[in-house]
Amino acid sequence: MTAVSFQPSVASQQEVVLRADGLSKRFGGLLAVQNVTFTQYSGEILAVIGPNGAGKTTLLNLLSGVYRPTAGRLHLLGRDVTGESMEARCHAGLGRAFQIVRPFPEMTVHENVTVGALFGKAGVSLPEARERAYDLLERTGLAAHAEKAAHELTLLQDKRLEVARALATQPRVLLLDEVMAGLRPAEAQEAVQLVRSVQGSGVSVLFIEHIMPVVRDLADRVVVMDQGQVLAEGTYREVTANPQVVAAYLGTEEGLHA
Ligand SMILES: Nc1ncnc2c1ncn2[C@@H]1O[C@H](COP(=O)(O)OP(=O)(O)OP(=O)(O)O)[C@@H](O)[C@H]1O
């Protein structure tokens, strides 16, 4: 398989926020991620898609520092973070929101986000963290629920809380792991607006998503993975017209848009 080289003309003028060079991850006999190379530019929304088992979650775990790569390097904002922990990457500007939301259930919504603010950057005082948390609750549409216990939230509100907690760490790059999963179409549209507003605040977003209309609406660029490798890279229109991509999704256009 050959990865399609893609050089965005405008983005190439911009700062590189994330650069993966030949990232690989082996689990025993399985190369779950193989020689993955891509660049993300400042302000871009980059989607990572691919059929089940393609290696997307493993790649996200390599980016956020859950796993160390078997081979390859990762640069965050020009700095080599390959050997650094999740915490160090978080302090360096990488935030992550998870598919399975795990807030502290007995703490209030506001307290949950305050914890994120305290965790993210060294030297943030408690009053500053509390202030930032209120600001983020406004931005993520949760202000009216600030004093509720986190376990009282609906699924959509949970996802908003997860994004607010990740933003509280003041990331330059936000990784989103299938945050639309389980949402009804109208709720997914609300979540799309939230991600757009995150981008509007100057944060670059890299997301894994199975829901193709969400990918179409959000992604400036799409990286398609299959069997651990980058199969194609380009705009949504380019990658969905690529016969190799169509073939990877069960060999039919319907598979791609299912
Ligand atoms: N911790 C692990 N140990 C062993 N194998 C693993 C581990 N994590 C993932 N794998 C394997 O690596 C391959 C890629 O899995 P991964 O979860 O990254 O794919 P994915 O694209 O995220 O899939 P999905 O869309 O179904 O979530 C799969 O074959 C999976 O079984």
UniProtKB/TrEMBL annotation:
Residues 18-252 form the ABC transporter domain. GO terms for molecular function: ATP binding; ATP hydrolysis activity; L-isoleucine transmembrane transporter activity; L-phenylalanine transmembrane transporter activity; L-valine transmembrane transporter activity. GO terms for biological process: D-alanine transmembrane transport; L-alanine transport; L-isoleucine import across plasma membrane; L-valine import across plasma membrane. GO terms for cellular component: plasma membrane. Keywords: ATP-binding, Nucleotide-binding, Transport. This is ABC transporter. It comes from Deinococcus phoenicis.
